[in-house]
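Structure request: LysR substrate-binding domain-containing protein, Actinoplanes oblitus.
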Amino acid sequence: MLDVRKLRLLCDLERLGTIAAVAQARCYTASAVSQQLSALEREAGVALLERTGRRVAFTAAGQVLARHAARVLSALEETDAALAAVRTGPAGPLRIGAFPTAVRTLLPSALVSLGRAHPALELMVTEVDPADVPAALRERRLDVGLLNDYDIAPGDVDADLDSVPLLDETVFLAVPAEVDCDSLDAAAGQPWIMASAGTLCHEVTVRVCAGHGYTPRVRHRADDFATVLALVGAGQGVSLVPRLAAAAPPPTVRLIALGLRRRTRIAYRRGAATHPAVAALIAALT
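Returned structure:
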């Protein structure tokens, strides 16, 4: 019988590409990952990987098992959801990951309604950058997470995850009220307030500015939109801000609607849609 935990490591290796990356994602040593994969080969009775120094490549059998392993893990998720559905109702821990703006605006009312309707649920919220949500779901550090993408930077389709739409919102150019700037072209000469490098918000700003023929001149870096708007209101620069974060901007900030959209989705592991706790959260949010 093949061990499910080892199958997860095989799927991780297919997705991440190296044993070192799998070890880092799972908080194991590289040696421990290699030993588990070698044990899986013995269980399978066939070579799954070809090792050349520090490099590994999937054999034909390894590719077949990785594909089937993904379906096995999805089926186990569905089984867990089905078993949970025959119990008394949504109960136990539900780990939710969301970006800071959503934690402030979307989640509080949903958490209140869930707590009243399902007091046996143990709701746990963690602020997570959307870029980190897929890995956190696959590694079972989260049960549900909010993802977002932009029409200029569409999200990748993840075979391990499912999702449902939550929001589709306008993105604004936020500028100091006294500054003569009314378009992205005019913003070329302004200092910018940008998110940290490596985040989706940072990448979107770079792409938007590149589409208008320039590289933004960064003055400040901030990942929380409340901070961003405060800095814009203080005359420190311009920035891109989605509608969800711009409901009550400071009076010293002017918002210019752009032809740019941000989409937010509720994501979970494939097969988990019918889990009572997951379904209850989706219903509360939507």
